[in-house]
Q: What sequence folds into this?
């Protein structure tokens, strides 16, 4: 009989973690597991009363009784961080403690670092102290050895160190880099793709794929465009996160000077066919994230690495970790506009360097595939109590 895994995650919505979970459960199914989803709906938290939250937790734990293990995808906002650190910490911790009482093992994949870089000085110290105290009270106790104990997956060694500083047992944390899609096969040539998008055939197209957000440095890319020759174009292929309420898009649009408007595109959400045309037309993929990002892994960067195009990325922890392993991106200092514009021209004019980066990125994607990551995850499942014999010969993917 196949082992049954219940996944707690956002699901079938425009969300990087929902996409991560979808790729993950498909690979688990191929490995012989039966999977189902308990969807998180972050937008519901502000409207729930205490009794509603209690019923929600009861429904989750009641469903979990029919499974051999629960796998949680964690990002602070998924558990109501907009309502405060304590609220989100208690919601997540109450799930872990409930599963432990039921003697159901759990694994959590953490997609953000525990450290916050958004505040410095006294405010930063107080914020870190508050977070450590809250996580010590509601969460860390569930990761100690014992029946139904939990285990954690993080994407970098630096994130692992951060979690240990916040009270997690060293033995409970496993490092598995963010998995990659298979290298993308592009059937449309660059010139034809550019023509279909009404771009000059001899243009140099630099593209940022994914959600728009200040932490991703879209505004930095626009500033770099001011320093690049007339034949360079920038495409921001994606839209704001459905739950975003900040004015970033408005600020971004109004920041584009009139003389650059014909060279910069903000597409909003596009269908797969249009996205593929932009992939084919792109000369360089860009990830100019700001230094204060708390992400420990990024689906957008693995998407870019699988594109068959050279990637320029800022030196943030998550990307540097990838580059230490694969040496597959050209790195620049976060926020440095002049350095970024220089890097773009360097890659555009150096065919040998560009090809080397693409080849190394392809190798990295193959060695860090979803199937390879699942093999490591299965070992973690067994460490927290899942019996190896429970894995069936054929997976059954039950999630709608």
A:
């Amino acid at each position: 009989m196949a082992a049954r895994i219940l996944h707690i995650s956002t699901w079938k919505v425009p969300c990087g973690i929902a996409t991560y979970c979808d790729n993950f459960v498909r690979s688990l199914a191929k490995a012989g597991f039966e999977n189902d989803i308990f969807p998180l709906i972050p937008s519901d938290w502000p409207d729930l009363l205490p009794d509603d939250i209690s019923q929600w937790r009861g429904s989750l734990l009641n469903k979990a009784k029919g499974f051999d293990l629960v796998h949680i995808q964690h990002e602070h906002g998924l558990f109501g961080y907009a309502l405060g650190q304590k609220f989100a910490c208690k919601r997540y911790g109450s799930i872990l403690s409930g599963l432990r009482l039921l003697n159901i093992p759990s694994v959590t994949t953490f997609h953000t670092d525990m450290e916050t870089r958004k505040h410095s000085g006294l405010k930063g110290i107080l914020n870190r102290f508050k977070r450590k105290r809250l996580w010590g009270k509601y969460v860390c106790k569930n990761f100690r050895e014992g029946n139904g104990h939990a285990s954690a997956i993080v994407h970098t060694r630096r994130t692992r160190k951060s979690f240990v500083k916040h009270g997690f047992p060293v033995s409970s944390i496993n490092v598995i880099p963010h998995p990659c899609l298979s290298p993308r096969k592009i059937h449309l040539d660059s010139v034809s793709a550019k023509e279909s998008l009404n771009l000059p055939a001899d243009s140099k197209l630099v593209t940022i794929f994914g959600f728009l957000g200040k932490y991703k440095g879209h505004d930095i890319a626009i500033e770099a465009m001011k320093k690049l020759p007339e034949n360079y174009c920038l495409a921001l292929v994606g839209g704001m996160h459905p739950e975003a309420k900040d004015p970033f898009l408005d600020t971004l649009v109004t920041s584009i000077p009139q003389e650059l408007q014909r060279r910069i595109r903000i597409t909003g959400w596009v269908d797969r066919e249009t996205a593929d045309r932009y992939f084919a037309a792109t000369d360089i993929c860009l990830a100019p994230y700001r230094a204060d990002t708390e992400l420990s892994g990024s689906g957008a960067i693995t998407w870019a690495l699988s594109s068959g195009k050279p990637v320029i990325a800022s030196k943030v922890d998550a990307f540097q970790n990838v580059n230490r392993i694969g040496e597959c991106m050209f790195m620049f200092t976060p926020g440095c506009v002049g350095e970024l514009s220089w890097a773009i021209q360097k890659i555009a004019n150096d065919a040998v360097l560009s090809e080397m980066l693409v080849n190394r990125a392809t190798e990295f994607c193959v060695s860090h595939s979803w199937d390879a990551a699942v093999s490591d995850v299965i070992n973690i499942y067994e460490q927290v109590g899942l019996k190896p014999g429970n894995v069936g010969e054929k997976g059954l993917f039950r999630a709608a």
Remarks:
- Residues 190-367 form a domain with the Rossmann fold fold (CATH 3.40.50.2000).
- The longest helix spans residues 121-138.
- Residues 138 and 224 are 44 Å apart (CA to CA).
